[in-house]
Amino acid sequence: MKIIKTILIFLLSVYSYGQAAIExxxxxxxxxxxxxxxxxxxxxxIVYLSGKVGRLPSGQLxxxxxxxxxxxxxxxxxxxxxxxxxxxxxxxKCTCMLADIKDWPKMSKVYKSFFDRKNLPARSAFAGxxxxxxxxxxxxxxxxxx
Length: 146
Fold this sequence. Notes:
Layout: H1 2-18, E1 22-25, H2 28-32, E2 40-43, E3 46-52, H3 66-83, E4 91-98, H4 104-115, E5 122-127, E6 137-144
Parallel strand pairs: 4-5
Antiparallel strand pairs: 1-2, 2-3, 3-6, 4-6
């Protein structure tokens, strides 16, 4: 009986998974620029935010080094969340990509002060050989939409 119950639960979960609603989030700027990605995708109640860099509304990278880029990147993430009625408090996981791993301490200091909460999101950070637009940092996140 236990095996039958387990199989039924499994089949119901597979059926439910196949019925997941997917919502694509894009700003007009993203559409106008023809970027090859959505800014965010919502599947059930999980928000998958594409990587953001420290671009200003003008399209240029903010000047001033890794600290300024990190803060602008996080503000850009917050802006996407606000458009879907979420906040940075809804973020539970971030992946930080750095052009130079030596920038990790400075990026981490800005990152931690931005979230300014006891329970920080889970996080991975690594260096790559190059980031979009010559950025020093790119951050992607997962958030929960209740």
